Amino acid sequence: MTGMDEQVTRHFRSIESLAGEIHGKLQDEVVQLGFDTARVVLKSPAEAVYRLEKDPADGQDSLVGVWLDRHDCKLGNLVFHADGSFFVEQDIVLPHPTHPRWFVEAVNAWGRGGEIKAEARLLPVPE
Predict the structure, then answer these.
(1) Model pTM score
(2) What DSSP assignment string belongs to the chain?
């Protein structure tokens, strides 16, 4: 969160609690998949780099965050719209720990307000 301007910081503070709940749901997905939580560590919402972006649908500001790795490659994103809806996704990019025919690309969450839905995005392993 370092380096954010005042307006972005204000928007982040308004969704910080919700973002924490979403992070918890994503972590639950990782556990349900069977990953060792020491091996798959999700970045927290505070570790993302944020900006404000006009939503083309309603013209209001959306808070958009991006998680980056140590090489500044994108690991995921967070989008919080003014109407309370959101979409959050963080890459996993590992073979499924218990189903060798599947690859876990990412975990994502979406919803509005306190209603949070989450799931893993799986890809079949080519034969």
Answers:
(1) 0.91
(2) -TT--HHHHHHHHHHHHHHHHHHHHHHHHHHHHT--TTT--PPPGGGSEEEEEE-TTT--EEEEEEEE-TTS-EEEEEEE-TTSEEEEEEEEEEE-SS-TTEEEEEEEEEEETTEEEEEEEEEEPP-
